């Protein structure tokens, strides 16, 4: 998306509230995100970005079958606070789903969010957007996957902060401890790994 970290620090005189944004988003022709009280258009993605996101979503959905957890795609908005609401590429919620609105447009309690980076979003996904996700009380993990190379980073909430793990081999398995499952990197990059540069 077009927003960058400086946009968060910039003083906003008139801010959109979450309620105003949701009313706008419900009838919009394209998706937007609410960042620091401002609305930003969402950009499209490449075929590799889409395929990786589908791979991850499908694999997690399959591994959670029969459990009290649901997988949601990039159409599910996640509400951070009154002036921030963003669309991850995928999210997982366990137990009762809670929403910020009666229309069930903005999820309040994801346990896991997933972002697949693109060249234009990489700094955002690993910067201010990650910080927003980490501020969610419900969130236990954030998985960020690189679409240009075989590389993923997993941020997991710990007792004294956040633990960072990185993965750069198709032989690696990503331990999604909050979900009690592992995600094989070979399946994350299925169909696209041959086109990617390895570290």
Structure notes:
This protein has one domain (46-195): tt1808, chain A. It contains six helices and 13 strands. The chain has helices at 5-9, 18-26, 47-63, 122-126, 128-134, 185-188; strands spanning 32-35, 38-41, 69-72, 77-81, 84-86, 90-94, 106-107, 112-117, 141-146, 152-158, 161-167, 173-176, 181-184. Strands 3-6-8-9-10-11 form a six-stranded mixed beta sheet, with helices on both faces. Strands 5-4-7 form a three-stranded mixed beta sheet, with helices on one face. A hairpin with a 5-residue loop joins β9 and β10. The protein is globular, with a radius of gyration of 16 Å.
In terms of topology, how is this protein built?
Layout: H1 5-9, H2 18-26, E1 32-35, E2 38-41, H3 47-63, E3 69-72, E4 77-81, E5 84-86, E6 90-94, E7 106-107, E8 112-117, H4 122-126, H5 128-134, E9 141-146, E10 152-158, E11 161-167, E12 173-176, E13 181-184, H6 185-188
Parallel strand pairs: 4-7, 8-9
Antiparallel strand pairs: 1-2, 3-6, 4-5, 6-8, 9-10, 10-11, 12-13
